[in-house]
Amino acid sequence: MSTNRIILFGANGQVGQAFCAEQIPADWELRALSRAECDITDHRTVQHYIKEFHPDIVINTAGMTAVDRCETEHDEARHANFDAPANLAAQCAAIDAMLIHLSTDYVFDGNAGNHAYLPDDMMNPINVYGESKMMGEEAVRHSHPFSVILRISSVFSAFGTNLLTKMIQAIETKDELRIVTDQICAPTPAQDVARALVTISTQLLHGKSGGYGIFHLCGAPPVNRLEFAQAMMEAYAPHTTRRPIILPALSSDFPGFAPRPAHSVLNCDKIREIYGIQQRPWREGLDESIQVWLHKRKQVA
Ligand SMILES: NC(=O)c1ccc[n+]([C@@H]2O[C@H](COP(=O)([O-])OP(=O)(O)OC[C@H]3O[C@@H](n4cnc5c(N)ncnc54)[C@H](OP(=O)(O)O)[C@@H]3O)[C@@H](O)[C@H]2O)c1
Questions:
Q1: Considering 27, 86, 154, 190, which has the largest number of Cβ atoms within 10 A of its Cβ?
Q2: Closest ligand 1 atom to Cα of 160
Q3: Which residues pair with 184 in a beta bridge?
Q4: How far is the CA of 241 from the centre of ligand 1 (A)?
């Protein structure tokens, strides 16, 4: 049995951790690198790992994801989300390794009414993060034909800082929460992204035809941020006595934050048709993530 070699960048991120927790095929040798082991903006270190390990597939889950920080730290956003993927794509192309790169629904402006964005829809980001991710996508697409760009949205998990872990912290520490109703999103469990990455990689390694290009994956159904907050509170309620009040707000009530798309939902037909990957109700992933979060908390205590 020949071994398939996979490098994953961003191993300490929420998708990276979810990927490492997945059952991977027996014929894979996985090298999962955290930022401490390999900063993707350090092109020489990236080259060192790629040359040394000679992967069949590179999966890039690393990136600067702090949307508000990107507004003021333009250079960092550009280095991590544009220059680094551009370099990765060039290095993968040079050794014929396939590249799977994660991107975001924030490449769209969210002004298309109830339309769920298709992979080929026109990008028009409204914040620096989205712009840097769009440039990263373009660089990957243009320099490497054997690449997959997987756009995902509103990722949550038991790992790191995200919508769910922030909500649990808020429930435990605040009596009143103000959450916006004018942003519609499609929350996506990190473990669904991780499973999709395993499925895509497996099929690419088996010579999948038509498997390259841009794909979308998100959970279902779309909800506004307040509805999602209520769902998180309801799912977490059996594990706490705290019941903060949740009040509706508008994005304009929070000046100083990066603008976010108003209706940010991805159409996932293509990934289902090509790879057989089905959208899942995010509610299922919410319950699973809370169980993982509780388990982690017990281990720390
Ligand atoms: N989170 C979301 O809601 C969301 C939505 C749509 C798309 N995405 C995309 O999905 C991908 C994974 O997101 P995620 O939710 O897993 O994000 P995450 O939890 O923030 O993880 C990103 C990881 O990348 C690492 N990183 C940042 N800069 C790096 C660098 N220069 N070199 C190496 N590693 C670096 C971070 O390290 P540190 O922890 O040390 O900073 C972190 O471990 C990203 O491409 C993101 O743009 C995310």
A1: 190
A2: 19
A3: 224, 263
A4: 32
Q: Tokens representing 269?
A: 């037909």
**Sign of the CA dihedral 37, 42, 45, 47?**
positive
Q: Which of 57, 43, 49 is nearest to 96 (CA)?
A: 57
Per DSSP, helices labelled H in the chain are 14-21, 43-53, 67-72, 74-78, 84-95, 128-143, 163-173, 190-205, 225-236, 269-275, 282-300
Reported residue count of the chain is: 301
Least Cα distance to 282 among 216, 221, 240 occurs for 221
Q: pTM for the full model?
A: 0.98
Residues labelled catalytic: 129
Distance 101 CA to ligand 1 centre (A): 11
Q: Is the four-CA dihedral 90, 96, 100, 106 of positive or negative sign?
A: positive
Quick one: tokens of 224? 């506004």
CA of 110 from ligand 1 middle (Å) equals 22
Q: Say how far apart CA 105 and CA 121 lie, in whole Å.
A: 11
Query: pLDDT of 244-273, one tens digit each?
Result: 999 999 999 999 899 999 999 999 999 999
